[in-house]
Amino acid sequence: MCNREELVxxxxxxxxxxxxxxxxDCMKKVVKENAELNVEERNLLSVAFKNVIGSRxxxxxxxxxxxxxxxxxxxxxxxKLIKEYRSKVDGELSKICEDVLGVLEQTLIPAAPSGxxxxxxxxxxxxxxxx
Length: 131
What we know:
The protein is mainly alpha-helical. It is built from five helices and no strands. It is elongated and about 55 Å long.
């Protein structure tokens, strides 16, 4: 098991490698160890979740665009498959949002030491309610 400093370093390394799911895992371990995050740790957590959700949102937009084109062509069999695939992406989006909201509501917001931290986490909470 890594200590806090190592987990933060691994999160930064994951960011550089564009492996955002692993970055999220590292930062969730940091939160679990101690919910009071400094500014750098808050930003790493935010970047991790933003990139994880961002790639899924981009996938959803692409799939929806393809679905519209196929529907326009009258390719009903393809549209059915695309809807099933979009549903899978939607499920991933929901799971990620539930995950970040759980971390925020159950751990980070109650433990936030300053007004600045609380505002940061409440803004983050609002962002993930949008998705």
